Amino acid sequence: VETTLSIIKPNAVAKNVVGKICDRFEQAGLQIVAARMLHLSREQATAFYAEHQGKGFFEELVGFMTSGPAMVMVLKGEDAIARNREIMGATNPAEAAPGTLRADFADSFTENAVHGSDAPATAEREIGFFFPEGIC
Ligand code: ATP
Ligand code: MG
Prior knowledge:
- The chain is α+β, with helices and mostly antiparallel strands and 136 residues long.
- The chain has helices at residues 10-14, 18-27, 42-48, 58-65, 80-88, 101-105, 120-130, and strands spanning 2-8, 31-38, 70-77, 114-116.
- The model has no long low-confidence stretch (mean pLDDT 98).
- The protein has seven helices and four strands, in the order βααβααβααβα.
- The chain has a single domain (2-130), classed as 2-Layer Sandwich (Alpha-Beta Plaits).
- Strands 2-3-1-4 form a four-stranded antiparallel β-sheet.
- 35% of the residues are buried.
- The protein binds adenosine-5'-triphosphate (ATP) and magnesium ion.
- Adenosine-5'-triphosphate binds at residues 57, 61, 91, 109-110, 112, 115-116, 118.
- The site of adenosine-5'-triphosphate has 9 residues, from strand 4.
- Its main location: cytoplasm.
- This is Nucleoside diphosphate kinase.
- Pfam families: NDK.
- One of its GO terms (biological process) is CTP biosynthetic process.
């Protein structure tokens, strides 16, 4: 059983689809074991996306991620990391398969509705980043 970090990004929160997105996770057998709304600061967004610093889309990404509240969650289940990324669909919504979260809720490449950790080491870092107190 794995855990992974999920973020419902500000565009999806603004569109009132938090419930629909959580339902997709639960229907797929991923359990929400931690969750919190937060409005990311510039410092938090920059640190969270440090690997992308210097790329052409970085400023747009930080601007978007700090534009309004997001929901950060920990999902738990069998193969949670890969399963979550399957449910999300491709990063570029133009390439996201029908029925995936990004196909249904993205507004652009940057405003692509959700984030999900991409590997076990990343999941551990990202869960610790938002839930340093641990999860129950
Ligand atoms: P995430 O980390 O959000 O789950 P990902 O791992 O699929 O997405 P990354 O390559 O880590 O994708 O990029 C992080 C985020 O930066 C993307 O989700 C998207 O919001 C934005 N992004 C990435 N590449 C581009 C791009 N070429 N143009 C615009 N925005 C981009
Ligand atoms: Mg990523």
